[in-house]
Inverse folding.
């Protein structure tokens, strides 16, 4: 039996749904659930259920400190605490030899995850959350571009539509959550590099607070970047779209044609000199995808799709975007780690 632990309820839906899914699989035992000492009102605000009731539901041992979790030596851990604590807690788990999945993002600033550099242990999995890397249309988009269908990509636009997270008190604190850009930057920056294969080398960003004055930080951000190899990228985060609208839209223009996501029945529409080509019919569950991949990583069947190296790159991009917004200038990203 693979013994799984949950630490924290701050990530709300993800904390609960990840563990519920895993608990239904053969060979999995939910060994311990930890509320990290948060009171019942906090846990209910985040997850919609008390820690006690959730532990009863899954017939798991409930504890209140992270040290207790580590002392119990589970095989694997789901880390769903406040984002500011992800790096520190992941470091302690990896040092203890525990396979660790961190709900997105691992961090929203490079200093938060710096301690993980060089700490990765042989045979110990550290998988960072990015649900969109398991969304069928995004995976197909990546595979078709990497397969050369539209040639070399010289322009990619990624638009993310998500209301700013304001329901939970900790999410309204930029020092704890990173705000909308800190929370969703992993989608924009990680996907742009993963899909095209090229990192951003310089960027200009601007943003403002347009829809959620209560959070007193940027809720809408636009970024223009130049990728290695000379390609352009346009990354957009909107927190003010109130009507029904796709969560994400991606358009890539290459030397041989274009690919555009389509959130109807088909995953995308491709158009080249050979004609138009539809994607597959959409059928996806990102939560299941992340957890199945985590189990495959633990069993050494696959490498981490969103790795520490990916998150080092993402946090550097987020730091650069905030700096560009603050100083109103083009920022060149540092090379290396």
């Amino acid at each position: 039996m693979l013994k799984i632990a949950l630490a924290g309820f701050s990530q709300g839906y993800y904390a609960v749904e990840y563990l519920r899914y895993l608990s239904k699989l053969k060979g999995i035992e939910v060994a311990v659930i930890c509320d990290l000492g948060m009171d019942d009102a906090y846990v209910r605000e985040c997850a919609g259920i008390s820690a006690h009731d959730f532990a009863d539901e899954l017939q798991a041992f409930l504890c209140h400190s992270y040290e207790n979790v580590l002392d119990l030596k589970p095989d694997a851990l789901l880390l769903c605490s406040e984002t500011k604590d992800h790096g520190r807690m992941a470091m302690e788990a990896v040092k203890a030899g525990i396979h660790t999945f961190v709900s997105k993002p691992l961090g929203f600033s490079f200093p938060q995850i710096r301690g993980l550099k060089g700490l990765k242990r042989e045979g110990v999995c550290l998988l960072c959350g990015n649900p969109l890397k398991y969304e069928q249309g995004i995976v197909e988009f990546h595979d078709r571009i990497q397969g050369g269908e539209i040639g070399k990509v010289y322009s990619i636009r990624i638009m993310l539509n998500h209301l700013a997270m304001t329901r939970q008190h900790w999410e309204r604190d930029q020092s704890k959550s990173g705000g909308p850009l800190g929370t969703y930057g992993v989608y924009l920056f990680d996907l742009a590099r993963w899909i095209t294969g090229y990192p951003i080398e310089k960027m200009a960003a601007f943003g403002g607070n347009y829809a959620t004055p209560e959070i007193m930080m940027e809720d809408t951000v636009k970024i223009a970047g130049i990728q290695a190899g000379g390609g352009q990228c346009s990354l957009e985060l909107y927190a003010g779209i109130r009507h029904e609208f796709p969560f994400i839209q991606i358009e890539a223009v290459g030397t041989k044609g274009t690919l555009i996501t389509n959130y109807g029945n088909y995953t995308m529409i491709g158009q080249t000199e050979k004609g138009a080509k539809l994607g597959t019919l959409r059928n996806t569950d990102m939560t299941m995808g992340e957890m199945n991949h985590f189990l495959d990583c633990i069993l050494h069947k696959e490498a981490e799709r969103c790795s520490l190296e990916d998150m080092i790159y993402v946090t550097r991009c987020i730091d650069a975007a905030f700096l560009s917004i603050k100083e109103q200038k083009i920022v060149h990203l540092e090379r290396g780690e």
Observations:
- The first strand starts at residue 2 and ends at 7.
- Residues 308-327 form the longest helix (20 residues).
- The chain is about 35% helix and 25% strand.
- The chain has a mean pLDDT of 92.
